[in-house]
Amino acid sequence: MQWETVIGLEVHVQLATRSKIFSGASTAFGAEPNTQACAVDLGLPGVLPVLNEAAVAMAVQFGLAIHAEIPEVSVFDRKNYFYPDLPKGYQTSQMYHPIVGAGEVEITLDDGSTKRIRVHHAHLEEDAGKSLHEDFHGMTGVDLNRAGTPLLEIVSEPDLRSAKEAAAYLKAIHSIVTYLGISDGNMAEGSMRCDVNVSVRPVGQEAFGTRAEIKNVNSFRFVERAIAFEVERQVELLEDGGQVIQETRLFDPERDETRSMRTKEEANDYRYFPCPDLLPVVLDRAYVDHLRETLPELPADKRARFEGELGLSAYDAGVLSASREMAEYFERVREVCGDAKQAANWVQGELSGALNREGLPIQHSPVSADRLGELIARVIDDTINGKAAKQVFQALWNGEGASADEVIAAKGLKQVTDSGAIEAMIDRVIAESPAQVAQYRDAEPDKRGKMIGYFVGQVMKASRGTANPQQVNALLKEKLDALC
Amino acid sequence: MHDKTLSELAAALEAGEFSSRELTAHLLARIERFDDDLNSFITITPEPALEAADRADAARAAGKAGPLTGLPLALKDIFCTTGVKTSAGSRMLDTFVAPYDATVVERLKAAGTVSLGKTNMDEFAMGSSNENSYYGPVKNPWDPAAVPGGSSGGSAAAVAAGLVPAAMGTDTGGSIRQPAAFCGITGLKPTYGRVSRYGIIAYASSLDQAGPMARTAEDCARLLGAIAGHDLRDSTSVARGVPDYTGELEAPLTGLKIGLPREYFGDGLDPEVEAAVREAVKVYESLGASVREVSLPHTHYAIPAYYVIAPAEASSNLSRYDGVRFGHRCDNPQDLIDLYKRSRAEGFGEEVKRRILIGTHTLSEGFFDAYYKKAQQVRRLIRQDFLDAFEEVDVLMGPASPTPAFDLGANKDPVSMYLQDIYTIAVNLAGIPGISVPAGFAGRRPVGLQILGTHFAEARLLNVAHRFQQATDWHCRRPAIAEETV
């Protein structure tokens, strides 16, 4: 039987506010345990939450970015359950009236095609602390630094049909939140985590199959692997005549498998009710309009502009707009060198290659966008040739020289276009290569084109790469043919 | 000194008749002498009190005294106080010391008042008799066989017995007004949102409100002025100016329209209580007020609605007492569930457990709509009843409680105890202010007249109560213990 995979994602994004969603404590990552938890975060008796306006603004910006409905009123609810890293015994969340209503996110697939994924809603909530099970000899440590960090939970409709689509969706969300600057998007530090709902159904069937929820998957790669495993498990189960049970599962990246955590019967009754300590959030039109005006250009718009106005290919436009950092770097290079295609080639070629080799993100590139732009400008104005440009790039990467011009001057890489000088080099090469000249002369005229490569190489070598290759080619052909 | 009202003490301090230190020492001695028997305090803080009194005297000497500087008072043990235990009357918090002051405490300190200690209360403010305290029941100063009312029973008894001229209480369903009535003092529950809840241990967050308890309405007006106002740390506190509550006290009552809710004079009302209240209403007529009957048709739904909403909020508010970070923890927990179960089973008393169970049930899947949601709808109807009534009249009057103080141990059945709050509970559901003033006796036990106003009508209520106290002397009557000297 042919099976179709149905996936819905709940993405938790930590918002980049300086202080927590309901208290003034810092949200900075990596502090000593429990040094960034105030009385409110600790759930001490008598203290009260006060909503952080920055978190509201960020949630609304996200909503606007996905063209979602922004309801005038949203309400915080309490989700009640006991756990040591949940200090109050409830999580303040939004169950019935979320801050962001229905919207949609466009994803780009490997073949360059796009698909719209519907977002059911997004709501604000507070993060819990962390339980630390190691290093405590049979006991559990609790770190409440993370407790109260603002989260935006983005809940998709079950519109995703493969692990690849799910990963593309996650990347699209990542790109939107980092473009907006509402999250650092750092998955390794837990700034973005997701719960994946997966089910399968026979192709052609309309009703959804029973789903399993895979909790807390925290990388693009793990999302793909967890779904791949889960789909295989469910299909196998069904083909063997079994049934999928509705349950919560955990992905174990070490073993590359998902394991049952709890079944629906064991599920908590969270006893949601409106939080009486917080007033409903009422957003007036002017506030929302103001936020709309301050939205930056978003990935989808940027991609369209790169393609339409700058004339890049769909693929290049997609790659260069994928992250805010990449897009900003590219745009700066383009501004400095004045040529979008050259800028695109360099950013995706030489620069990306070097970054990948050293595992650096583009914002930590040793060669700044300005330096790279200046370098490309020197290729465009024929100061250096392409080969020399690579040497200059490498030198800049290694920190040898403050600018392209400095490296060009120091290394004597300025392109030689003086035909007298080139002719002199050619004459010397011909004089020093009697055997190759004889071969050339004896060859059939249509084979000679290939043989000329040897002489070009020698001349370029003699010029230490600075001779203009087109000139070398033309002059060599002239002189060799004259010898025949 | 202890026979004086807060206002009289303020005048005496200003006139230099005695110092705040002398006054404080005198009251501490009375507490020492009488409170072993009365049990109105959980914690007494003599040293910080005397230090605060000295600071107040120094401020006065420097010409920097305000209207409340150097005046002693007590705080219900539900207000968090830096460095001093705050137990909420519970074993769960028997060792809890907050690292912060409640906003009310902060403001009272800033006004120069002197706290003598923390008063006894029903555990987590759940109760109407103060019998639910981990620290034992409080006796009614008028009659040791009677309860002082609850949950602010310690505050009411301490004021009535002349141990302090005033005390702070909280009122979620009548917990200021009913004990004030039972102990023959004046107690004001302000409008919800008038006084910050920050640092007050939560029972039912949408109903809790702090207020003053003292001998007179004038004293309450002085204290309310100090504690009321917007607080950025409490989102439900209202950003609205605080009037001078003492400024309107003397306004004449000519033309005042009084409504008597029909439902507050029905079955179950003690005849002596009714007689006292009707007598009080006559006093108002003599002061130029007109009286008419009004109806609050949803009154009989108030107790059921309250006992859905309050326990629901309480079940969630009390989840933080889990033995993990502070408060009572059982010995040698075997695992996490054992830690939760035994810490909470040992730390909470019976009534608290009952309300947690009720609240957990009413919020459960499948019951939420039938209970919680329905109760919230009823709540809106009850609020509307009051708003409709205040279209016709300026204030409502009736008894604060259907009976005078009952005997210790008399109400064993929780539901009969819940029914004690029939006249006070709807007020919290509607969020309006109410005050109870002494209005006579039923036998040896005091009777309270309750006066209700619309939202933020505290100044009017205090004015109406004050004029009554100028025309009567019920508020001047003292129990024998208050006349005794050390």
TrEMBL record, chain A:
Enzyme Commission number(s): 6.3.5.-
Top enzyme category: ligase
InterPro entries, per the entry: Asn/Gln-tRNA_amidoTrfase_suB/E, Asn/Gln-tRNA_Trfase_suB/E_cat, Asn/Gln_amidotransferase, Asn/Gln_tRNA_amidoTrase-B-like, GatB, GatB_C_1, GatB_Yqey_C_2, Gln-tRNA_amidoTrfase_suB_CS
Catalysed reactions listed for this entry: L-aspartyl-tRNA(Asn) + L-glutamine + ATP + H2O = L-asparaginyl-tRNA(Asn) + L-glutamate + ADP + phosphate + 2 H(+); L-glutamyl-tRNA(Gln) + L-glutamine + ATP + H2O = L-glutaminyl-tRNA(Gln) + L-glutamate + ADP + phosphate + H(+)
Keywords: ATP-binding, Ligase, Nucleotide-binding, Protein biosynthesis, Transferase
Alphabetical list of Pfam families matching this protein: GatB_N, GatB_Yqey
GO molecular function ontology, one term from the record: glutaminyl-tRNA synthase (glutamine-hydrolyzing) activity
Domain named Asn/Gln amidotransferase: residues: 328-480
A Gene Ontology biological process term: glutaminyl-tRNAGln biosynthesis via transamidation
Taxonomic superkingdom: Bacteria
Alphabetized SMART domains for the sequence: GatB_Yqey
Entries under PROSITE patterns matching the protein: GATB
Role: Allows the formation of correctly charged Asn-tRNA(Asn) or Gln-tRNA(Gln) through the transamidation of misacylated Asp-tRNA(Asn) or Glu-tRNA(Gln) in organisms which lack either or both of asparaginyl-tRNA or glutaminyl-tRNA synthetases. The reaction takes place in the presence of glutamine and ATP through an activated phospho-Asp-tRNA(Asn) or phospho-Glu-tRNA(Gln).
Protein family per UniProt: Belongs to the GatB/GatE family. GatB subfamily.
Assembly behavior: Heterotrimer of A, B and C subunits.
This protein's name: Aspartyl/glutamyl-tRNA(Asn/Gln) amidotransferase subunit B
Native organism: Halomonas heilongjiangensis
Gene: gatB
Automatic annotation (TrEMBL), chain B:
Entry GO MF terms: ATP binding; glutaminyl-tRNA synthase (glutamine-hydrolyzing) activity; transferase activity
Pfam family of the protein (one): Amidase
Keywords per UniProt: ATP-binding, Ligase, Nucleotide-binding, Protein biosynthesis, Transferase
Presence of the UniProt keyword Magnesium in the record: no
Residue ranges of domain Amidase in the record: 22-462
Reactions catalysed: L-glutamyl-tRNA(Gln) + L-glutamine + ATP + H2O = L-glutaminyl-tRNA(Gln) + L-glutamate + ADP + phosphate + H(+)
InterPro entries (alphabetical): Amidase, Amidase_CS, Amidase_dom, AS_sf, GatA
EC number: 6.3.5.7
Gene Ontology biological-process entries: translation
Family of this protein: Belongs to the amidase family. GatA subfamily.
Quaternary data: Heterotrimer of A, B and C subunits.
Role this protein plays: Allows the formation of correctly charged Gln-tRNA(Gln) through the transamidation of misacylated Glu-tRNA(Gln) in organisms which lack glutaminyl-tRNA synthetase. The reaction takes place in the presence of glutamine and ATP through an activated gamma-phospho-Glu-tRNA(Gln).
Record's protein name: Glutamyl-tRNA(Gln) amidotransferase subunit A
